[in-house]
Amino acid sequence: MENGRTEQTETAYPNSPATKFGELIGSAPAMAEVFALAKRVAPCDVSVLITGETGTGKELLARAIHDRSSRSSGPFVALSCANLPDTLIDDELFGHEKGAFTGAEASRRGRFEVANGGTLFLDEIGDLPLALQAKLLRVLQQRTFERVGGCQTVSADVRLICATHRDLEAMVCKGTFRQDLLYRLNVLQLQMPALRDRPGDIVPLAEHFLARFASNFGPHVARFSPESLRALTEYSWPGNVRELENVIQRAVALADTSSVELGQLPAQISGFVHLVSEPQATFDTSVREFKRRLIVRTLKECEGNKSRAARTLKLARPYLHRLMHELDLVSFAEAFREQRQPFAA
Q1: What share of the chain has pLDDT > 90, as a percent?
Q2: Is 10 domain-assigned?
Q3: Residue 217: is it exposed, middle or buried by C-beta count within 10 angstroms (0-12/13-18/19+)?
Q4: What is the C-alpha to C-alpha distance for residues 75 and 91, in angstroms, rounded to an integer?
Q5: Do 259 and 317 reside in the same domain of the chain?
Q6: Domain that holds residue 275
Q7: Could you read off the pLDDT of 227-266 as tens digits, one per residue?
Q8: For residue 184, what is the domain's CATH number?
Q9: Which terminus of the chain is more solvent-facing, meaning fewer CB atoms within 10 Å of its CB: N or C?
Q10: Where are the alpha helices (DSSP H) in 68-167?
Q11: Whole-angstrom Cα distance, residue 181 to residue 185?
Q12: Which of 326, 163, 300 is CA-nearest to residue 238?
């Protein structure tokens, strides 16, 4: 028992060598390093900066740190700074007084006040406008602020954890992020690895999501077929764990048998696996599968653009088009271009 919470964050995940830290699952060396550092920094009331691509689980890591801290009985409050206008972020962070602007019919507490005594998680801190960076720095230095339209000083007893997929040091060099604020935020940095850099975690994560979604709306689904597992492990996961979660949710919803089959996976993922009906592949089938895999990989790298793929493969576009028809890849390319979406926070 720690801070009134039962210790359950380090147990081995069933039927796999993966371990858990909060809601995060992973056994790769990079994840083990993140878990070890997070455990050490959690009890220390210092700022933490979590970096990594979108969809890697930065907010889950922040929550796990909060749950192990001396502030675990206090609130965990999260706010994404991405794609919000300056005035809205200012209001969200610090609140406003009645009459501060048109429509402000009552006073409102901001996230700093709501998180008092707990942890405030600011995602995509690299998107914070410069003017608000200065205001945030002042709050971190003085632990006080004023609401929008107010003059009364409000105390802010919060632990700040920030996250970003941007290179903040490069932004400092460009003058788009304050160096003094970066020093304040980056007391300790944790780098979340991309899913493609820890392929051994794909199956345990997929099984975890399968169990969760099966209990919600697909109790008859209990496993993955060998072909679907092969496709999941060979895909590069540009959207990381969030994309994997979305894919498994879709597959469970579509499954009408006890297992997730290849056909229930999106075309850009199922296209990596070519099913050979013969028990033992012949020379012709091996060559066909090699061609298919090469074209699928190139189409993926070129985001479904056949002209770019032809140039990359140094093939004439008509010849590539003919090969795609022979290898049943036309629908894959079209589906890839239609379904591919950025998995931004």
Answers
A1: 57
A2: no
A3: exposed
A4: 19
A5: yes
A6: 197-339
A7: 899 899 888 899 999 999 999 999 999 888 899 999 899 9
A8: 3.40.50.300
A9: N
A10: 86-94, 111-114, 130-142
A11: 6
A12: 300
What's the domain count of the chain?
A: 2
Q: What's the pLDDT at 51? A: 98
Do both 167 and 263 map to the same domain?
no
345, part of any domain: no
Residue type, 26: G
pLDDT per residue as tens digits for the range 40-68: 999 999 999 999 999 999 999 999 999 99
- Same domain as 150, residue 233: no
Query: Is residue 278 scored above 50 in pLDDT?
Result: no
In angstroms, the Cα distances linking 143 to 97, 139, 170 are 19, 5, 28
**Do 147 and 230 belong to one domain?**
no
**Residue 186 belongs to a domain:** yes
User: Is residue 211 a contact partner of residue 223, using CB atoms and an 8 Å limit?
Assistant: no
Q: Stretch 198-214: mean pLDDT, rounded?
A: 93
Residues shown for the chain: 345
Gap between the Cα atoms of 221 and 223, Å rounded: 6
The answer to whether the beta carbons of residues 320 and 299 sit under 8 Å apart is no
Q: Where are the beta strands (DSSP E) in 40-166?
A: 48-51, 76-80, 119-123, 144-146, 153-155, 159-164
Determine the Cα angle at 243 with ends 331 and 290, to 5°. Answer: 45
First and final C-alpha spacing in the chain: 33
Scanning 143-189, the segments in alpha helix (DSSP H) are 168-174, 179-185
Candidates 345, 288, 338; CA nearest to 123 is: 345
| Structure confidence at residue 297 (pLDDT) | 79
